[in-house]
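Practice problem: Mechanosensitive ion channel
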Amino acid sequence: MTINRGRNEIIKIIAEIIIGIALTIAVGFIIDYIITAFLPHYISYEKLINEGVRAIIVFVIGFMIASSFIKYIELRIKTTKASLYGIALIVRIVIYVILIAIVLTIFHVSVTGILAGSAIGGVVLGLAVQTIATNLLSGLFVSSTSTLKYGDVLTVNSWVWSVNTTGKIIEVKTLFSKMLTKDGNIISMPNSALLGSSVIVEYKDNDGYYNYPIDITLNADVPLDLVISRALKTIDNTRFYISSKNGSTNTIHVIIRFRDVTEINDMIDNINRIIDRAYWDVKNNMVLFGPYATAISDDYYKILVSLPADVSPGRIIEGAGGLGIELYLVSKNSSTNVYMAKFRSSRGMEFDISDVNTRIDDLYQKLKKENN
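Answer key — structure tokens:
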């Protein structure tokens, strides 16, 4: 549909040029006939009248061609009339300059001197409006190449300003483009900086969601897989990757999913809080359980319990099973047996540890009395 409309505009431009040429020739003959046949006393003004009428025709047809050409450009680059303002301005200036040159030629005015003067003036004017012209041309490329489009979600990494900017494009104009940032602010960015001095990262739309990466660095004093597994229990729509490890720190690459750019800051804050909480949970377990903290999984915890060796390990393990406690013999010597008790925390870890130790000690005392 757009291609057909663009073709129609081209045909319209060609038709307007042909009509303009035909009208100019026809009007010349008509004026010559009228003055010769009916107004012979104005014959000395015939040349001037003819030139004036032809100049008017040239201007009218030129305006029509300019309008048709702008419509054609609008169809080709698929932009709005507001964003087309700068392009329309350039097209009109070029066509008007051509029209003025044609009109001057009609009146037999040499345009050589004018062109020479305008060339010098153009250099001076170009230096004066260099920044505006750069932005204007950049805007034309941005619009025509669809580098930026309304609704694009992206991050602009520019060496013009030091801060990376993430947001959603809400307007693309000739000189500036507007972005709604993740902070909820609207900023205007010069198109020249976007095209010539920036790297643009565009986020892909996946069923209404966008993926946004962040890196979180943690101390390497706890197992990283335990931190990630704990974090995954309390968050959805998030992927975790271990991006780097060294002797002192570990870095987690996190991919969060969002629908609106203004959600990003809240989601980053939430992810950081969850990771921080998971890290300290694991670290506290390491302090509490020592090396056996790595055996904690699915909310099961393991503690070591030491008992005198005067009661058979088999009886202790059997009695603990009757109490609902999984008990395993870890090591033994002539005076002490060491058991591992496995339990699921329900009320709170500190309460469960105390409860397990108390119940096992009561069991030991009971079995010891039976031996006596």
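Discussion: Residues 2-128 form one domain. Students who identified this feature from the tokens alone can consider the problem solved.
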